[in-house]
């Protein structure tokens, strides 16, 4: 039996609507239902609803992993579950191991840290925590102007946008569809020999998913071709627009 994937489990735990197949599976599968319940208790706790949430205190190494995973500031490197101590900063490691041996008293602030840490035990849970954090802002990681090739006058631009779930999309704008056939978008290696087709676009702005395995450093050229309706899946050799993606520096503030 195909169980729900972690993303779907997270959706269910967040009380988001599922597609019919997933919902039917969830209704009939104890294993998945139990996963959803467990994660749901984490979600409730992270939202501040501690009633009924089952919690456990994670090892401090978990916080270290979260700290690294989320790229938090050095000031936040201390496990929030540790007790304040005058010598803690000077000897964090030995202090942490002593603290771990003590019985902990939970306050809501510590509980939130605890469930966040506990959520890291599963990919789906991590996904849920990411959803609970400030809405993930799409980040532009690379950009290019698209310039017309001989015989064409359209202009355009392309941006590679990532979201918190790691999905990359190419957002491409073409001022005017000047293809005699249809416009197909490609990511091409500098030798112009290897390429991936991302899909078909018209004029205006389109969003195309970039497959996970495509290395943009190796395929930096964005090309819009004019494809005749001949059933041939290969590049026609006629390009309307082209540009080379350049990494976009992270924006300050
Ligand atoms: Zn299942």
Automatic annotation (TrEMBL):
Q: Which InterPro entries match?
A: RskA_C (IPR018764)
Name listed for the protein in its UniProt record: Anti-sigma factor domain-containing protein
Gene source species? Arthrobacter flavus
UniProt keywords (A-Z) are: Membrane, Transmembrane, Transmembrane helix
Query: What residues does the Anti-sigma K factor RskA C-terminal domain cover?
Result: 113-233
Q: Which residues cross the membrane?
A: 110-129
């Amino acid at each position: 039996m195909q169980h729900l994937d972690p993303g779907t489990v997270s959706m269910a735990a967040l009380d988001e609507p599922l597609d019919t197949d997933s919902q039917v599976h969830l209704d009939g599968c104890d294993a998945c239902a139990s996963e959803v319940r467990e994660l749901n208790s984490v979600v409730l706790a992270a939202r501040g609803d501690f009633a009924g949430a089952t919690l456990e205190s994670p090892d401090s190494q978990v916080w270290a992993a979260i700290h690294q995973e989320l790229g938090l500031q050095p000031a936040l490197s201390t496990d929030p579950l540790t007790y304040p101590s005058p010598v803690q900063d000077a000897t964090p490691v030995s202090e942490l191991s002593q603290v771990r041996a003590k019985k902990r008293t939970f306050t809501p602030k510590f509980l939130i840290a605890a469930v966040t840490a506990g959520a890291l035990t599963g990919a789906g849970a991590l996904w849920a925590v990411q959803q609970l954090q400030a809405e993930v802002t799409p980040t532009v990681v690379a950009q290019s102007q698209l310039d017309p090739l001989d015989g064409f006058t359209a202009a355009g631009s392309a941006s590679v946008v990532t979201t918190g779930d790691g999905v990359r999309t190419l957002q491409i704008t073409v001022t005017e569809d000047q293809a005699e056939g249809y416009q197909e978008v490609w990511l091409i290696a500098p030798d112009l020999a290897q390429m991936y087709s991302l899909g078909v676009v018209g004029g205006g702005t389109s969003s195309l998913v970039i497959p996970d395995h495509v290395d943009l450093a190796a395929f930096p050229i964005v090309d819009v071709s004019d494809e005749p309706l001949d059933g041939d899946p290969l590049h026609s050799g006629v390009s309307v627009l082209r540009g080379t993606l350049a990494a976009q520096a992270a924006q300050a503030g």
